[in-house]
Design goal:
By secondary structure, this protein is an all-alpha fold. Helix content is about 60%, strand content about 0%.
């Protein structure tokens, strides 16, 4: 699931925005209502929108909300994906 993609990145796995997008889209047929807002934010290439949708996903699915601090400190459009200090 998408949570695994977020956690993999948090744990230091190599990150590519294109691979992240493709991985998110791989869940579209099974979970279109979940994937569509995230995919739209990725398509629009606005980091603030991506962060908003990823945090909405975390909250709506009952995951640990402290992950939103990581999500908001991370650049989701940059291959290097620098994480700002929390």
């Amino acid at each position: 699931m998408i949570i695994d993609l977020i956690l993999d990145r948090k744990e230091g796995m190599a990150y590519s925005p294109r691979e992240f997008y493709n991985s998110v889209m791989s869940y579209y047929n099974a979970f279109p209502a979940i994937v569509e807002p995230i995919a739209n934010a990725l398509d629009n290439k606005e980091d603030i929108d991506i962060k908003k949708e990823l945090c909405t996903y975390i909250i709506d699915n009952g995951y640990n909300q402290t992950l939103c601090a990581y999500i908001n400190a991370t650049n989701w459009l940059d291959k290097g994906g620098e994480v700002n200090e929390l």
